[in-house]
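Figure-free illustration: sequence to structure, shown twice.
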Amino acid sequence: MELVKQNFSIKDLEHLSGIKAHTIRIWEKRYNILNPDRTSTNIRTYDSSNLQKILNIAFLNEHGYKISRISKLSEEEIGKMVKRISASSSVENRAINAFKMAMIDFDEELFNRTYESLQEEKTFQEIFQQIFIPLLGEIGTLWQTDTIKPIHEHYIVELIREKIYLNIAALKQERKPTSDRLFVLFLPENEIHDVGLLYLNYQLLLNKKSSIFLGSNLPISDIKYLLDKSDNITFMSYFTIAPQDIIEFVREFQEEICSEKPRELFLFGNRVKQFEEQKKNFSANIKFFPSIQDFIKTL
């Protein structure tokens, strides 16, 4: 079993802090700001305390403090300065950094504390759009560069998913649908990334729309059983890694679901963005949305 990463390379620090590895080496040599261990082949490795320190240094540096001044401060003084400046700095950037540290350290308490602090001044919609979406984008980059492992991504995504479910449950208690239009949300076979689709369901409920959330890995043939549920159904799906052939997916949808009459299919996710310019080649009942925001504007 692969061990969870507890030590980080200088490239990892670059990806997490935004400071170039070359600059970190210079600062380390000139100002002794970090204390890395070295492997038997003399390669630097950094623990989580080094990671926290470079994140704090990066924060101060972004706010106009020169490294020559920062290097003279103790870690306690650096921490206090970060907290003081944080009071007037970007709430979004602070939260994203806190969530990243919560992910790295598997710290649910830090995650919840940061989330609850955001709730004091932001709606859940604002938290998701301003913080969770950029955070998930950064996490994708960190995973691609092997800075974090899948276990880190799974951990933070599950915590975000829990918050979406809690807000969905609250909406179901507070708001009743005011439209007879039914939205059916599902992910295709071999697609398991459901955060985007869950948030779409939240938006539908927020706008008092009727919805049925079917979850992940569902064959198109199975959704036929809902056709008798309503005469006004719009199907929605979100593509992150599947299907392999989107054109074939659309063809199957038309054959299986639209044999009697056209039914709308709204498609979202990174994999559909390439089809935005080709939408004129698809039937009018197939609609591609480059972002969730574009869909929200139609509600």
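We now fold a second protein in the same way, so the two outputs can be compared directly.
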Amino acid sequence: MNSDLNWDDLKIVLAIAEKGSLSGAARHLGVSHATVFRRLNDLEEHLGVELFLRDRRGYQVTTAGQEVADNAQDIATAISAVERRVIGRDLKPSGTVRLTTTDTLLWGVLSPILSQFRSTFPDIALEVIASNNLFDLSRREADVALRPATNPPEILVGKKVGVITQAIYRHRDLPVDEATNWVGPDDAMGYPPLRNWMDQNGFLAHCDYRCDTIMGMFAALHNKAGQGILPCYLGDGAKELIRVGDPIDPLATDLWLLTHPDLQRTARIRAVLDFIDDAMRHLAPKLGGTAVETD
């Protein structure tokens, strides 16, 4: 039997083991469900062993499958380490940088900064991942992250570049009798501090419009659905909204600019980090909600 194993097939096993389904593995790898199914069957036939048990709960990894997945993870880690170290040797600011941030930060703060960056560094291409999900910088799912965080991962390096404040906002034309209606987060948003603050202050009981993203809440307030809490950089920038009161101190969050230690001296990564860091220093009033008057 030919003992050669294809790295792409090992990635299939690792993805199925991590996601628990063919569809989840397909989305993670950016291939079709049929491709994952075919490669798994071919690999099991090649090895002569069952790697996963199929049942109603999904794909449950067998002992042999776990061994393959563990070795695939070791290989992936080694490949990522080589990429980071080799990439870190370039001196010219050129190439591609993958940057991850939240959709609200991209909309309310970062987009014009990135446009200015591209004008300044035309040889550096940007791939921007606007998502509220966390991406693993150690596995090069992204090179740079700009994210709110209380305690950023210790494996990453970077600096705090600001403090994001939040406040209550409503549409300036919202009828007075509808001002008691609240727009808030649902369970899928995964933002316990906001839910807890609203609950402790009695607002959650009046929340009949819930969204799984801050941008969803922003859209609801824009369309006069009630009042709700937004980052000040987002709410203050919307002319149709007015702020009700001062920023809410318990909801203030540090904003971090992060990368992997192996990449921090790479010319193109350094260019992105320095450019965003410098821009954020000038945006402190906007992030802190001190640039406008309150209602």
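Summary for the second example: Residues 63-87 form the longest helix (25 residues).
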